[in-house]
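Hi all, long-time lurker, first post. I run a small reading group and we've been trying to get comfortable going from sequence to structure in the token notation. Rather than ask abstract questions, I figured I'd post a concrete chain and ask someone more experienced to write out its structure so we can walk through it together at our next meeting. Sequence below, copied exactly:
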Amino acid sequence: MTYTIKQFRSKRGCLSYILFDEQSKEAIIIDPSEEVPTDEYLKYINDNNLKVKYIFETHTHADHISSSKELKEKTKAKIVMHKNSPSKRKDIEVDDDYFIELGNTKIKIMHTPGHTNESISLYVNGAVFTGDALLIEGTGRTDFQLGDSIDLHNTLWGKLMILPDDTKVYPAHDYKNREYSTIKHEKENNPRLQLSKEEFIKTMDSHHPEKPELFDQAIEKNSQ
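-- Answer (accepted) --
Happy to help. Here is the structure in token form:
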């Protein structure tokens, strides 16, 4: 299994990805954003002769407008989201322990709720794409979109922290120009992972930062 990951970063720190199997050239796009010019995705796809099979949304984003519909039109790929997603744009509904194959590369879909009730992560041997569930030295908030602090704790310790320590963590956001982390680094350096379960739940339940700048617009557009 040999695959390549290409990361795209918007000026505001939204991260999206193309992952492709090097032998078959079959590919997926993860969390595409309108803040990255669509032509950048398409140029990479064309330059590498990729066949995009799926476009994954790790959840219905509340802080940026997704470009998955436009990329679907350009690539004929199917949009994949969790079955709990309210978005009308999804073509395929998935749940925990679904698998997809890109040539010889097998990707496991994990339901990782907490930030939202629909959040998914994608695991491929050596890497995990965590959306907003696990960020680099942080986690997603739990105070809207049917988030739940207990669910997020269960996600972190019951699903993500049991992955191999050297697994690279690719989140949907980073504001310090970091490309990725690792499970080991997060265990040792993520402040929220140093808390007891009770402390974590209390901390997250009381964490109510301002809503994202594009919240209302993003939720409406990304649900269509």
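A couple of things your group might point at:
The longest helix spans residues 149-160.
The mean pLDDT is 96.
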